[in-house]
UniProtKB/TrEMBL annotation, chain A:
Its main location: membrane. The chain crosses the membrane at residues 20-43, 81-99, 189-210. Signal peptide: none annotated. This is Polar amino acid transport system permease protein. NCBIfam families: ectoine_ehuD, HEQRo_perm_3TM. Residues 15-207 form the ABC transmembrane type-1 domain. It is found in: Cell membrane. It comes from Streptomyces qinglanensis. GO terms for biological process: amino acid transport.
From TrEMBL, chain B:
GO terms for biological process: amino acid transport. Pfam families: BPD_transp_1. InterPro entries: AA_ABC_transptr_permease_3TM, ArtM/GltK/GlnP/TcyL/YhdX-like, Ectoine_EhuC, MetI-like, MetI-like_sf. One of its GO terms (molecular function) is transmembrane transporter activity. It is found in: Cell membrane. This is Polar amino acid transport system permease protein. It comes from Streptomyces qinglanensis.
Amino acid sequence: MKWDWSAVGDFMPRFWDGVLVTLQALVLGSLIAFALGLVWAMAQRSPLKAVRWPVMVVTEFIRNTPLLVQLFFLFYVLPEWGLTLSALTTGIVGLGLHYSTYTAEVYRAGIDGVPVGQWEACTALSMPRGRTWSAVILPQAIRRVVPALGNYVIAMLKDSPMIAVIGALEMLGQARQFTSITFLPTEPITVVGIAFIVIAYPASLLTRALERRLVR
Amino acid sequence: MTDLTAGLWELLFKGVWVTVQLTVFSAALGAFVAFVVGVARTNRLWIVRFLSGLYMEIFRGTSALVLMFWMFFVLPVAFGWQLVPMWAAVLALGLSYGAYGSEIVRGALAAVAPAQQEAGIALSFSPWQRLVKIQLPQAWPEMVPPANNLLIELLKGTALVSVLGVGDITFGAALVRNALGESAPVYTIILVMYFILAFLLTRVMRAVERKAKAGIGQAPQKGQGVLRKLTIPRQADAPSSDLSKSAGGA
C-alpha cells in the first residue's frame, strides 16, 4: 500500500473547506428536519381527514424512496419549474425534507407517549388547541425524543456526502476534486472516511449520554 | 409522461432488475455479517467482543457512499485489487448494512430470557447448540420488524451505486433524462418504482414476521412496519379523536 503524507498535507486546506460545508449542510438540514418534522407530526393528529391523509401519504412516500433520487429530482426538476437553487441549497433542502419524515415519526412516538390524562386535563380546563400543544403536550413530548432526534442528525451526517453527487463541495466533493487534479485517490478518500468516524463516534456517545439523562 | 419510448422504458426496467439483484445480494451478505458480528458481540472472550464492537463502530461510523468510493477508487490503487463495480457495490452495502444489522441481532439475543440460557446449560447443551436451538429461534421473530426497516434503508442505499456507473434504476434514469432532455417525468416514475419496491419488500417481510411469530406461538403485532399506515386501517388515534368525540358529546 502506498501512502503519501505530503498528499495528505496538500489535501488539508480543501478538506477543512469541505468540513465547513458538511457542517453547514448538517446544521441547516437538521433545523429544517426538526421544524418540518414537527409540522408533519402535528398535521397527522389533525381532526381533519383532509389534512391527515395527504400528509401521511407524502411522508410515507418521501421516507421510502432514496434520498439520492430526491436530490436529483430537486436539482433537475425545480429549475424546469422555474426555481433555480445552488447545489448546496438544494442539498440542504433535500436532506432536511428527507429527514423530516423520520423526525415526524420520532415526534409522533413522543406525542403518543404523553398520557391521555394530559389531553383530558386540557379539555377540562377548556384550553385552546394551540395552547394545549405549546404549553402541555410538546414540552413533555420533545424532552423524551431528543436522543432519538440526535440519532437522526448522525444519520444525516452520514448521508451528507450524497450532496457531493449534485456538485456541492462538501468533504467527499473536495476529495473527488482533489483526486481529479492529482490522480491520488488513496489519501483524500481515506482521510474523509476517517473524518466521518471521528465526528460520528463522539456524537453517538453524546446521544447515548443524553438518553440516560433525559429518558426516564 | 407519454414521451417515453419503449426503448427508454426498457432501460428503466433493466435498472429495476439490477436494483433487485443488488438488494438481494447485499441483503444476503449483510445478513451473514450481521449474524456473525451480532453473535460475536455476546461472546465470552473480551477480545472477540472488542473486535466485533470495533467492526460495528467503524462501519456504522462512516458513510456508505464514502466506503463505496473507497472500495472503488482506493482498493485498486493502494492494494491492486480491482473489483467489478457491481461486486464493489455489494461488498460496500453488505458490510455497512451488516454492521447496522449486527445491533439488531445482538439486541434480539439479549432480549431472550436468561433462564432459557441457564436451562440449556443445565441440560448440558454445548454453546453452539444453545445458540442454534434455544436462543436464535426465540430471538428471530424479534429481529424481523427492525430488519424490515433496515432492508428498506438498504434498498434506498442501492441508488448510490449509480454514482459508480452500475446500471441500476437511478443510472437508467440519468440516461433517459439525457435522451428526453426533460427531468420531471423520469424522476417521478423512478421515485414511484422505488416506492413500489419498498412496498413489496414490506409485504414479504410481514409474511416472514407472521410465520416467525407463529413458530413461537405468537400473533404478529398490529401496526408494525414502515408502511403500516398505508396498508393497515389506521386505528383511531386515542387522544385527539377522544377529544373531538368528548367535545362533540358535551
